[in-house]
Design brief:
disordered N terminus; two-stranded parallel sheet; four-stranded antiparallel β-sheet; alpha+beta; 12 strands; single chain
Length: 604
């Protein structure tokens, strides 16, 4: 399978070898006619002063998991295990690259947080748009309010009061004393001065309701504030698309690293098996008196080296699996494994120049910086609105009702007495701050300077985007050459190892030659696996950084139905107990007690 894959990638390697000459010819032509940088198109003219996010340029995130992946849905956001049994791994779940991407899109808390930020920006935009509408305020001083009072005044300062008392007089008609006016028939009274009232009593139920309608007819801050909120909403949408693409890139990169770790474990296992065979043969020849003790020691050294390699690769495999599980936010008791071996995903068709231009048109980071310029300009206009007039329409309606009496001279108050009132007022109000010490003008300059800063950041991001594309493009080209060279190295090293083993068996060579060739084969296979990982990683980075998906898929490898049998004799690797790492306590045959109840368990 490696030879076929190497043959496919060899075509790309041959094609890429012709690129430098073509590029050199283009450079020679460009030196004679350099492009005037002042004639380059303006980003605002190309994208607009307020570019909108376009979700159609990227596939939407998965919102429903396929039935086989439903058990791998993320735990609740606030779930927190509190016992070892809840975090102990119970399942190793093989996943393909497509399944890993689906789980990342559905489970990722970072992507959910980015979606929440879009909703927050949308709510903020709706809040800013509400400035176009009137406000209606209802206030009440009591629903109802019970009022009771008593007041006392110094009697020396209370004026006397005049009261009329009944009296009598002699009637001129009858000559008798009478208390009634003969003409009017009313009782006869006379004025009498008495002390004034210095005590007052009150008891009332009060209700006061006010309804006010306000509408800003002229508000200079309204339009720039709404424009800034709308730009922040579009910026949040761009951030979501960026988070989605970064999530897919990180998930694919983690999966490729896991594939490389799996391949490293396989190479380590094969190396240990080959070292066991070499050690067995060396001991057999030593017992037969054919070779020396040195060759046995060399075989043992190589076996120890391969075991160390296997141990390291097993540790990297465990870390890669858990790193992928963390990125996919899998359940606490599930660890993912790679279901497919590493292989090149395809060939990249666009040229370097086409990739750079596509990245300029595709990357939302540039759109965000243009939106930052627009946001800062809107904030500058809103700052000037602080010293501009505001004209408002205000209509106020007030209703009052009281039940009871106030100012009574006795505590005997009739609560059946009530009063009712209604008032309405309509007015145009204006406010204008004539002087603020230069604060508004200073805020205006600060926002304009921030807009200039966003322009400088745009230039820096533009250069960074081009550098990223060039690094991935060059890395992809290098990986193609590495796949070609390492695949040839693997084939040559495998044949050299076979010939050296035959030479040792014939007695014309030493064990050192076998050890060296075996080490060369192991290193060549590790470099080949690393080249495959580098190729796929750079390919994923180019797809992320340019927005292009112009891949030529590799042809499917035709494999036989039955697994071919290996010429080497299969020697199983016997498990060895975990020894102590402390030389002071290590002794012959000492082991560390590892049971199911022990809190410390082997990593693999």
């Amino acid at each position: 399978m490696r030879r076929i894959t190497a043959g496919i990638c060899l075509v790309a390697g041959v094609v890429s070898t012709g690129v430098p000459s073509a590029l050199s010819q283009e450079n020679e032509q460009s030196e004679s006619a350099l492009v005037d940088q002042n004639t380059l198109p303006d980003a605002i003219d190309l994208k607009g002063a307020r570019p909108k996010a376009d979700p159609s340029v990227v596939a939407p995130a998965l919102d429903v998991l396929p039935p086989p992946l439903i058990p791998l849905a993320a735990p609740p956001s606030l779930a927190l295990p509190d016992s070892p049994s809840q975090v102990r791994i119970h399942e190793l779940r093989p996943l393909t690259l497509e399944e890993a991407l689906q789980l990342a899109e559905f489970n990722s808390p970072k992507l959910k947080a980015a979606a929440s930020q879009v909703d927050q920006a949308k709510s903020a935009l709706r809040a800013a748009i509400s400035a176009w509408y009137p406000t209606v305020d209802l206030s009440a001083s009591g629903l109802p309010e019970y009022f009771k009072s008593y007041s006392y005044q110094n009697p020396d300062f209370v004026p006397d009061r005049v009261v009329r008392k009944p009296t009598t007089r002699i009637s001129p008609l009858t000559g008798k004393e009478t208390s009634v006016n003969a003409i009017t028939g009313e009782p006869l009274t006379r004025p009498v001065e008495k002390d004034g009232y210095n005590e007052r009593y009150a008891r009332e139920w009060r209700l006061n309701v006010n309804l006010q309608v306000s509408w800003d007819l002229i508000n200079p801050a309204r339009v720039p504030q709404i424009a800034a909120a709308r730009d922040r909403f579009e910026r949040a949408r761009d951030s979501y698309l960026i988070a989605l693409r970064d999530l897919r890139l990180n998930s694919a990169t983690a999966y490729f690293n896991l594939q490389e770790a799996d391949e490293g474990v396989r190479i380590g296992q094969v190396s240990v098996q080959a070292s066991l065979v070499s050690l067995r043969d060396a001991r057999a020849r030593y017992n037969a008196g054919v070779n020396t003790k040195l060759e046995v020691l060399e075989a043992e050294t190589q076996l120890a080296r391969d075991r160390n390699l296997l141990t390291t690769r097993l540790g990297e495999q465990s870390v890669s699996r858990r790193r992928l599980a963390s990125l996919l936010d899998l359940p606490q008791d599930v660890t993912p494994t790679a279901a497919t071996p590493a292989r090149p995903l395809g060939l990249w068709e666009p040229s370097l120049e086409e990739s750079i231009v596509a990245a300029y048109n595709y990357r939302e980071e540039l759109d965000q910086l243009i939106l930052d310029i627009s946001i800062n300009n809107s904030q500058a206009n809103a700052s000037l609105a602080a010293v501009q007039p505001v004209l408002s329409f205000v209509n106020s309606t007030t209703t009052t009702r009281t039940q009871g009496q106030t100012g009574q001279t006795s505590n005997d108050i009739d609560t059946g007495d009530f009063t009712y009132g209604f008032q309405n007022s309509t007015a145009l109000t204006a406010t204008w701050r004539l002087f603020d010490g230069g604060r508004a003008r200073a805020e205006y300059r600060r926002s304009k300077q921030a807009a200039d800063e966003s322009r400088f950041n745009f230039a820096d991001t533009r250069d960074q985007i081009r550098l990223e594309v060039e690094e991935s493009f060059v890395g992809l080209r290098t990986a193609i050459q590495s796949i070609e060279t390492t695949s040839s190295e693997v084939v040559s090293s495998r044949e050299s190892l076979r010939l050296s083993q035959l030479r040792v068996q014939a007695g014309v060579s030493t064990q050192r030659e076998v050890v060296n060739n075996q080490r060369d084969l192991t290193n060549a296979e590790l470099r080949y696996a690393g080249a495959i990982r580098e190729y796929n990683t750079n390919l994923a980075q180019l797809r992320r950084r340019t927005g292009l998906d112009a891949l030529v898929a590799c042809n499917a490898v035709s494999l036989p139905a039955a697994k071919p049998e290996s010429d080497q004799q299969l020697i199983p690797i016997e498990p060895t107990p975990l020894k102590s790492a402390c030389p002071s306590v290590a002794s012959a045959g000492s082991t560390v007690n590892q049971t199911e109840s022990s809190p410390v368990q082997p990593l693999w």
